[in-house]
Amino acid sequence: NKDSGHLDLRNSIELETGPDNIELDKSGALWIGSHPKMLTFVKYSKDPTKLSPSQVLKVVFQNDGEHTVEEIYLNNGESLSGSSVAAVFKDIMLIGSVFDNHFLLCKLR
Fold it and tell me: Which sequence spans correspond to the domains of the chain?
């Protein structure tokens, strides 16, 4: 509500993963850096030498209020461990991590 500043829940989307940071692109789609194995991520957070899978989801909303969830990226953590964010510009996607000292630069197909 603009006047009161209160928020009303409109929808809840089950992702079956541990969503971290959510980015909104120009089309209104959500790009979500996620942790598909939360217990593995907890172990990784205590010992960054252990790998944690990385996942990126894209949520697209239709005009009728429905949505689709698409897995855009998934790996076992070797390329990037514990992904936390994905940002897209044109056909480029950047994927960042909580603890890794690098990020991935990917070309979308």
Answer: 18-104
